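Backbone shapes recur. Consider a single case.
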Amino acid sequence: MQNKYVLSLDGGGSHLLIQLSVLACLEEDSGSSTYDLFDMVAGSSSGGLIACLILGRTLNAREIIHTVLQEKMLEKMMTEHRMSRLLNLLQIRPKYKGTSKSLVLKKELGNLRLSSLNKRILIPSFNLNRDQLEIFTNESQPDFLLSEVADACTAAPAYYPPVQMEDGSWRIDGGIGMNNPGLSVYLHAKRFWNDSDIKVLSIGSGWRSFAINGIKACGYGGIQWSVKGVASLILREKMITNVKITEEILGDRVLYINHYLKDYDMPGNMDSANNPAFQQKALEIGRIWYAQYREQIQQWLQI
């Protein structure tokens, strides 16, 4: 039976450098680019951005890392409003300008469209007009610009404003409903390669940690819980449950790599790697993860 290899990338904001570092190590070991190693790539949020760059531009992980670091891609995407500290404290508008992110993505992905891809893609996004999670694939209609897909899937609430796409609908980050697309991409792959043995390499971007004082929490209302990041806590627990279900269902057909960021003294905020020092730390974390899983990955991919 022929093997088909699928790459699944969790969301994680600027921590995408961890995932790229893992992939760069894999490329160095195998002598092949990520594009050549995998038949399908799925990504949620920042993972979706990586998927668009890999499949649209056929960039390898090392080249994307160079774009992020040398061309300061994250810094350009994370342009704050004036008086941002006060407005962020009041939480009355998105932290970053959506126009800056849109321009960066348009520059990187140009006029490429979903149907132009030679390999399969899967990216979730949430449609505000229809109040439902949507999946972008090669067959999506309209045939969206890849830059718009990347823009919409990275429009994390509170960080960026929603994105209006070609069909007029407004969309936000699909990570709110599917931050780990591993099981979904496996099922999608079965539609095309039902007679193949499908294997999913799923890479996270680090679990966030939430230390909350129980006694103080007894007096928390909505504002206090919001400040403590209860929405992110709920999202993390849903992700962990989803990962466990995926591993239980797929067994050795999936290999999931992820760890708590606190174990590496890495801040958990989605935009914390918008800083040269933390960017280097993120790359080092990726190298550590790859070293830990190197033998499993090589056996699993038969390289």
In short: The mean pLDDT is 90. The first strand starts at residue 3 and ends at 9. Residues 80 and 96 are 5 Å apart (CA to CA). The two ends are 17 Å apart (CA to CA).
